[in-house]
Amino acid sequence: MGESPLPAWSLPPEAIERIRLDFEWPGRVTRSWAMDGATGRGVRVCVLDSGVEQDHPRVGEVQGAVAVSIGEDGEPVVGDDDQGDTCGHGTACAGVIRTLAPECEIHSVRVLGAGFTGSGPVLLAGLRWAIEQGFDVINMSLSTTKRQFAEVLHELADTAYFKRTILVASAHNMPVESYPWRFSSVVSVGSHAEPDSLAFFYNPDPPVEFFARGVDVELAWMGGGVIRATGNSFATPHMSGICALVRSKHPQLTPFQLKSVLHLIADNVGGRT
Amino acid sequence: MSEDGFRAAVAAGVMGVDDAYRALLQSVVDVARSIFGAQAASIFLLDEEADELVFEAVAGKGERSLIGLRIPSSTGIAGWTLVTRQPLVIEDLTQDPRHAREVAERSGYVPKGIMSVPLLADERALGVLQVLDRPKRPDFSLQEMELLGLFANQAAIALDLLQRSRRAKAALDESGGGVAVVARVAAALDELTEGDRARAMRLFEALEDVLRA
To answer: What confidence score (pLDDT) does residue B164 get?
Structure first.
């Protein structure tokens, strides 16, 4: 077998051996196989939001924090974030992820707070930067309705997918078109009302793919505080935390394989065994 | 009819739009408050040019004299709702001292709980509707979120229509005689018999070809 790269779009007979998976799949994929004993260790999770409060008791250490703003030339720039959270929401999302995957790394990319007018370009620049960093999971509890950004967002979502980054995005429960959650390369998340942070359901009726805990959730908030809140915004970090757990136990999984595993271990598919 | 008369006739379609606009905003907050049995409801609308949210209407508790107050467009819960387009419900905000202080300075009323939903018309974000301190019920459900979203959608459609009428009125006010000529011709066309109108339309189609050539 030669060392030459595989042709891009075909698989010659002699190359089949070269794409053999380097791990054994169990006869039946169970939740126990997928995440028992997992802590998130080794997984880098990015929270693309309003910033994250450093050292909040429910968040702990934030391993990295940047903020995207509009520079003097009118273009978005990425710089160190010394402001923390401008709203409380990013801290809430980070707290959920930390609770589910206590040993994962959390990195904050602040794309909110720089004004509404520049929010689209700032969001795109922040997502592009996060994908370039090769994070394992990117949590996006936000969406845009601007069609002018849809095409670039779609390309970025596909880029993440092919670069093994799981993009987890909040579905929109209002009757408008919004992105990126509608793209099939992301893990889209709506809310269920069960009080169980590890319960999640596969939705056989897309575009929303999964439902995670999103009602009356206890959340970290600014000033070291705790609040209770409801919304798909908070279901999304639950799914990100679950992705971090599976990824930490099975780091070799591609986004396609991870989605397949999530489907098989969903409460309404394989159940909690 | 004089030119002024025609202008008045055309303007009649958008006349009163400012009054209707204020009435609609008040109606939206009144109904939102009533649907959820809340202590208050309020609307912030986006001023795109200034990149600010403007406090436009309030029902129930809250200081009416603060209507017109402006805040940065992407900070706080209203800003987050606008920029992310995501509705959310937060209980017990009094545990967030910064928020409580900011809101108190703004309105003299510190809500404990907030339902915050974006007002979206097609791809545009018009503003944010907030329902403050609805009674906390043990059976709070996703149906309430759904209802909030549906109501906000209806309100946004109505607001969008009235905002378009206001822009039309402003254009009419600014254009002087230019628009009035077109309006006069349209009115004259409307008064013709069917046969004459068909002949006139052919003439206008030919004129359009010349203008576009």
So the answer is: 86
Where is average pLDDT lowest: A16-20, A168-172, B10-14? B10-14
pLDDT in tens, A69-83: 999 999 999 999 988
What residues contact residue B213 under an 8 Å CB cut-off, 6+ apart? Answer: none
Using pLDDT thresholds of 50, 70 and 90, give the confidence band for residue B179.
low
Report d(CA A45, CA A138) in Å as an integer: 6
Give the dihedral sign, CA A149/A83/A214/B61.
negative
**End-to-end Cα, chain B, rounded Å:** 33
- Which residues of chain B make contact with A215, given a CB cutoff of 8 A? 140-142
> B56: helix, coil or strand?
strand
* Mean pLDDT of the A259-269 span: 97
> Residue B100: CB partners within 8 Å, gap ≥ 6?
B93, B94, B110
Residues B184 and B159 in one domain: no
Domains with residue ranges and CATH for chain A: 39-265 (3.40.50.200)
Distances (CA, A) of B137 to B38, B133, B141: 12, 11, 9
Q: Total domain count for chain B?
A: 2
Q: Print the domain residue range for B191.
A: 176-212
Residue B1 forms part of a structural domain? no
pTM: 0.86
Same-domain pairing of B120 and B52: yes
Q: CB burial class (10 A; 0-12, 13-18, 19+) of residue B19?
A: exposed
Interface of B with A in 169-188 (CB under 8 A): none
Do the domain assignments include residue B44? yes
Residue of A174, A219, A226, A227 to mutate, interface with B, max B Cβ within 10 Å: A174
Q: Do B149 and A173 touch (CB under 8 A)?
A: yes
Residue where the block lists tokens 């628009």: B179
